[in-house]
Amino acid sequence: MKIYDISMAVGAGMPVYNDLPEKKPVITVTRDRSVGEVFESRIAMDMHTGTHIDAPLHMLPDGSTMDGMDPARLIAPCSVLDLGHVAGGITAADLEAKSIREGKFVLLKTRNSETDEFEKDFVYLAASGAEYLRQIRVAGVGTDALGIERSQPGHDTHKILFRSGIIIIEGLRLKGVPEGEYTLAALPLKIEGAEAAPARAILIEE
Ligand SMILES: [Zn+2]
User: Fold this and answer.
1) Residue 21: what pLDDT?
2) Among residues 8, 42, 114, 202, which is most buried (max CB within 10 A)?
3) Helix (H) or strand (E) holding 157
């Protein structure tokens, strides 16, 4: 059995969406050995930092939240799809070339995984690709970009997936993971009322 850690490290220097300084996590030491025997620290960051899972509330006003997401849905059979040739949006035609099966998680491995910097022209899932995955009825979709879509008016990609109950994972690191079949485990923090939450994601290869 082999485990791939497909999570981003969280820290002050990590890439964040649009490289906005206010989106960088801030980690503060609140107690150290100069005042006692324990070491404690605190983190302040966006819910959409690094590897994270989006809940429907992110895009749908009456959408559900992270604390209602069943963890059993996040330990699941998963296909990693190599889409390294795609620039721009991943379309239905790009996905038709892969044999995606109903009920699986699909992780989209793109050239985003080749860089540790935020790229403004990152590869994203086009609305036609989301519509294709909805028709196949996948369980979830994960991307190696910090956003599953890129400045699309109306946020169609998110909405198509959320309205179909398809889970969205963003900010995966898939460099070095071959295309193939795995078991995914991606467990988000159980944050009440939240529209997203950071997660530790791994792939298990049998
Ligand atoms: Zn997000």
Assistant:
1) 94
2) 8
3) helix 156-163
